[in-house]
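Appendix B, example 12.
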Amino acid sequence: MAAESAVNFLNLDPTTYVKGGLLDDVDVEVLGAEFELFDYGGNSASVPALRLDLRNLSDSSDESQHYSCGNLKDFEPSEDGMYMLPTGSAQGFRSTSNFAILITSLAAHGFPTAKLAGQPISVLVGLRFHAVRKEVAGRDGLSGKEEKKDGDRKPTVLVCSKLISLPWDTKKAVAASKGVAAKPSTTAAATAGAPASATAIELDEEQMVAAITMVADIIEAKGGTATLKDIGMAAVTKLKLPAAVKTAAAKLVKQPDWLIAAGFAVDGDNVTVAA
């Protein structure tokens, strides 16, 4: 007769208890940010919303949060999800939308608003902050009844109560941990082989760190060695930069001279992190 398998009972020790329900009162990192249409699990008509992909820094679990931006008659996401476009007479976000509440909370705790002007929403990727839930009257396009189905819980939105690190600081730390330089001093156009001129596109520090981190990530994903072709292909799909500099940056990151200056080792077509 086969032995019965042991039953794993839940531990009664209160130090082993975990939080349940909605994400709240935790340190998080923004892994992804994109505008999209969202219907709150089929509980409402689709509304334009920001999706934040968040990592809970206490247990490394991942969760997505949506923030309504307004009504579909006023806004729609751009094709790449990086911008919100006006479709009606409204020319700005409503201050009462969940999106505005989130961004206002970030600004109130030190996120520089100048970094948001004219930028893609991917500017938030890498941001670390302490997140708490704040009660709200209701979201654009929703009555609030959707949340109340779960124990009559009042509508809330996850906001920032403290900044831990800004995206460019986080990306610098990631790049440093992977043994790569923070910023090679060069322009995208000149290093990519284009003649230096007044029209050469210069990557700023944040954009340069994003490019270096992208290369380090693809090398790691490829088991420690990536080819120049791997890096070039990844740049097209994974490099989140404004359109004005992305083409030049995509050419830049597969140039051996730039890779060496950024702290990588190049052996023919193979690229590794320099020892």
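Residues 205-221 form the longest helix (17 residues). Residues 138 and 238 are 35 Å apart (CA to CA).
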